[in-house]
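User: structure tokens for Putative pq loop repeat protein, please.
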Amino acid sequence: MDNAVAANVLGTAGAIIINYRRHNTVGLQPAMMVLWALAGLPLGVYNIVGDFNVALQVQPQILTSLSLITWAQCQYYSSGWRVMNATFAVTVIGAIMGGVELGLVFALRKAKRDNIEWPMTFMAVLSAVLLAAGVLSHYWDIYKTRSVRGISFLFVGIDALGDLTSLLSVFCQPRLDILGLIIYGSELVLWIGVMTCGVVFNLWPWIKDKKGEK
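Assistant: Done. Predicted tokens:
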């Protein structure tokens, strides 16, 4: 999951820059950003309780922070919120999520000491499901507008590459992790679907228009 999350972090950071430069978030789904922000919470708990290296413990916090910032951009550019309102909302939500994560870390550390493993597995699965659900939410906008908008194909490519790398790493393990296979495979398929929709609804009509001009 770490490769996939790192790709999500890079993609989200790129989206923030793009939104700022064009001063709009048309087509970008706030629901996707909320789901990704929420995904960072169980993943952060999983990585911290699992005693992963510092970089992997910090990575989910960055994902949550960037996702909340992008969500705030959606509220500012598309919903007409004032900067102060968006900033206040993000700060409050971030503080609440931080408190919940801290509580879960203490709870799962106790469970780990008692050799109870299912809470850790649940955290990993919940994070992956939220990330995939975030991608899935973008399909509703594609269905309504018959186009892929509000998201760059570089963003999609980076995320898909992260899922592909994670998927390949599952195959390289001594024991095949079926759960990991399903998690990474499903998100990769969703991203490939977004790219396919981009070709059908965006690229192909653009090519036909160019041919018509000639």
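User: Anything notable?

Assistant: DSSP finds seven helices and no strands in the chain.
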